[in-house]
Design goal:
The complex is a heterodimer of chains A (165) and B (503). Chain A has 165 residues and is an all-alpha fold. Chain A has helices at residues 3-27, 39-62, 67-83, 88-110, 112-127, 132-153, and strands spanning 30-31, 34-35. Chain B is mainly α and 503 residues long. Helices cover 74% and strands 1% of the residues of chain B. In chain B, strands 1-2 form a two-stranded antiparallel sheet. Chains A and B meet through helix 1, strand 1, strand 2, helix 2 and helix 3 of A and helix 8, helix 9, helix 18, helix 19 and helix 20 of B.
Chain lengths: 165, 503
């Protein structure tokens, strides 16, 4: 079991315990002839716990003997070596995440057009490390195209800047 | 309305200029996403779901979505053959012989036979859909809550067991999907579940937010990390129409691929990926020259490409007749129908014959459009691979964000979208199939509702699911299926040590 899979497995079991407890305690199970709001979530919680434990046992039993697993691990190692060269892809991913989060934060606060301009410019400058001029051109063209498409062609209701409206 | 009248009325609907335009758009977008690696049909349909709000009628919306789905199957073969890069999962097997043919300077015939095989299989499969769907829908009209519960749950379980490498992990994702569907106000008791005091959670998660998050954002994040490892090579395409000798070798492979794809496509979870793998295995097994497979055998392209197209059309049968989506892309079309106020299932043919027959007829038209789009324009599609990812990725993110926001006009959905994007990325990183999540989410309310109704009917006894004949048959068939899989797994486990020692 890789480190990531280990964490995912523990999260699954913990989630199962929480869901089962919450369903039993707060939502109530009801009686079989008339199951309550917590009945199905409780079954799901128990299923998550059982599956999580089974997943762990399976990984424990199968790992040393399976040829396929060795192959899989080799692929994972190879993949990590390829993608983490110079740490760039991981940093890029983090920057992309922060830029997207900032977009969600600004979307209603400064309106669609302005937040899209900030997002696109941020993406080109931070994630793609493009030059100023190229970034500005791409940003302007993309923002204009998206605005025209959603506002005028598809008539989607989009937030406008509170200062302008 | 009998089948003949139905399909004629369907053609009247599908051939109106507006619907033709939507079928064309669907075929065009589908081929484009089939060509672009890392953006599958499920993700694309999810991205475009919010747009369907602005399409007034359900018919053109579903026609477009269906076009994207089967169009992607055509487009997927292009990059597999030219670049050894499967544009979507069902084309992985096409890489084996397709790319070898391209290396030998026979990219043209490979692309040609893939498109022709796809056209024949797609069309034959739609004929099957036309003939089989109405009687199945009529039969399903007699289903009560216990039958609905058995069918939905067992269909879902079947989809999970067939869709990924690990059944256990697939089941975890499925249960997660069921749990997500339970968030919000319980329709029976009126109690709010798992809202943790957040007002926005009381109405539950929207399917679009989950689908575009897990499939759209998740894929973008995964590809961002791997970007740069893909090198784009240009291969000379040449003459795309296959020669007579190629055609002679391929015609039976196309026929077998069509039949395999059609029958596997009907099974929930069967779909395009498995059918293409089965078709390849069958072709290699019955070939007089199995040693040619892997070295550029045209049958190795013709069979699987036909199978994945036949399967994609056939997977509409359980959706349109039983209301059971068999794979993630079909689940998106299910959601599209729901958005437009149409409930897929046995009543669809009676309540919305325009949707039922219009969509089926549009598939005939769409297949013709696709062969025209694919054969002469193959060079144009390859150029699409030159769109820089630095532009494509943020534009896709903008689409997902606007799509999620426009459903309820609340910023909360944007944060939910990002959270589901992280979930999608984690699943991809851990090589866990995300498909069961949207399937379970969409079937969750039906499973829970029919289970509670059944228990009420039976006075709290679970035996109701096996005491009624249809429900018993469904459970019995599923048990046989599970037993078959166990036997298969045991046999494979017994055989594998021998293979290892042989290696």
């Amino acid at each position: 079991m890789s480190r990531g899979e280990n964490i995912a497995n523990l999260v699954t079991i913990a989630l199962g315990v929480f869901v089962a407890y919450h369903s039993y305690h707060s939502l109530k199970l009801g009686i079989l002839i008339s199951p309550g709001a917590g009945f199905m979530p409780f079954l799901c919680g128990v299923a998550l716990m059982v599956l999580g434990i089974f997943w762990r046992i399976q990984a424990f039993l199968l790992k040393p003997s399976r040829h396929a697993d060795r192959f899989h691990d080799a692929q994972v190692v190879e993949g990590t070596a390829e993608t983490s060269a110079g740490l760039r892809p991981r940093v890029k991913l983090c920057l992309a995440f922060v830029t997207t989060l900032a977009y969600a934060f600004l979307f209603e606060r400064i309106g669609f057009l302005l937040s899209t301009l900030v997002f696109m410019l941020g993406w080109q400058m931070l994630v793609e490390r493009e030059r100023w001029l190229k970034s500005i051109i791409i940003t302007a063209l993309c923002a204009a195209a998206m605005y025209t498409l959603f506002r005028y062609l598809l008539r989607v209701e989009l937030p406008s800047n509170p200062l302008f409206s | 309305m009998n089948i003949f009248d139905g399909i004629i009325s369907g053609f009247f609907i599908a051939l109106t200029p507006g619907n033709l335009l939507f079928a064309f758009l669907g075929a065009l977008i589908g081929t484009a996403v089939g060509v672009l690696p890392g953006l599958g049909p499920a993700a694309t349909i999810a991205l475009l779901l919010p747009i369907t709000y602005s399409i007034p009628s359900p018919v053109p919306a579903v026609i477009m979505m269906a076009g994207i789905y089967y169009g992607a199957m055509y487009g997927g073969s292009t990059t597999s053959i030219l670049l050894n890069l499967p544009g979507e999962a069902a084309s992985v097997v096409t890489c084996i012989d397709g790319y070898k043919m391209a290396q030998k300077g026979r990219a043209g015939p490979a692309l040609g036979i893939a498109a022709i095989g796809s056209f024949i299989a797609g069309t034959v499969s739609v004929v099957g859909l036309t003939l089989f769907a109405p009687p199945i829908a009529e039969f399903a009209l007699s289903f009560g809550p216990p039958e609905k519960f058995s069918l939905a749950l067992l269909g879902l379980l079947m989809a999970v067991t067939l869709s990924g490498d690990s059944i256990t992990k697939g089941l975890v994702v499925m249960v997660l999907g069921l749990l997500l569907s339970a968030v919000g106000i319980d329709p029976i008791s009126g109690k709010s579940r798992f809202d943790f005091g957040v007002t926005e959670l009381q109405s539950g998660f929207d399917f679009v937010t989950i689908a575009v998050g897990v499939f759209g954002l998740g894929e973008i994040a995964y590809n961002l990390e791997r970007e740069g490892s893909v090198e784009i090579i240009t291969t000379k395409v040449g003459q795309v129409f296959p020669k007579m000798a190629d055609w002679a070798k391929s015609r039976l492979a196309i026929l077998r691929g069509t039949l395999i794809g059609f029958f596997i496509g009907i099974i929930p979870g069967g779909g395009a990926v498995i059918s293409s793998l089965v078709s390849y295995a069958v072709e290699k097994k019955i070939s007089r020259h199995p040693e040619e497979f892997g070295q550029g055998a045209i049958e190795g392209v013709a069979g699987p490409e036909s199978a994945n197209n036949a399967a994609s059309s056939a997977s509409f049968i359980p959706l349109l007749t039983l209301g059971i989506p068999g794979n993630a892309a079909i689940a998106m079309i299910f959601a599209c129908l729901l958005i437009k106020g149409v409930k897929p299932g046995p009543f669809l043919i009676v309540e919305h014959p325009d949707v039922f027959w219009g969509v089926i007829a549009s598939m005939y038209v769409g297949n013709i459009m696709l062969i025209i789009l694919n054969l002469p324009l193959v060079g144009v599609w390859v150029q699409l691979l030159r769109v820089p990812y630095g532009i494509l990725a943020p534009v896709v993110i903008l689409f997902t964000a606007i799509g999620s926001y426009s459903i309820a006009n609340q910023a909360f959905d944007l944060y939910a979208l990002i959270a589901f994007g992280v979930l999608g990325y984690v699943l991809r990183r851990l090589k866990i199939e995300a498909g069961p999540l949207p399937l379970a989410f969409i079937l969750g309310p039906m499973i829970e509702g029919s289970m509670r109704q059944s228990l009420l009917m039976s006075g709290g006894s679970f035996l109701i699911f096996v005491s009624r004949p249809i429900s018993f048959t469904i459970v019995g068939l599923f048990t046989l299926f599970v037993l078959g899989q166990v036997v298969f797994a045991v046999r494979r486990a017994r055989r594998s040590p021998k293979i290892e020692t042989a290696v």
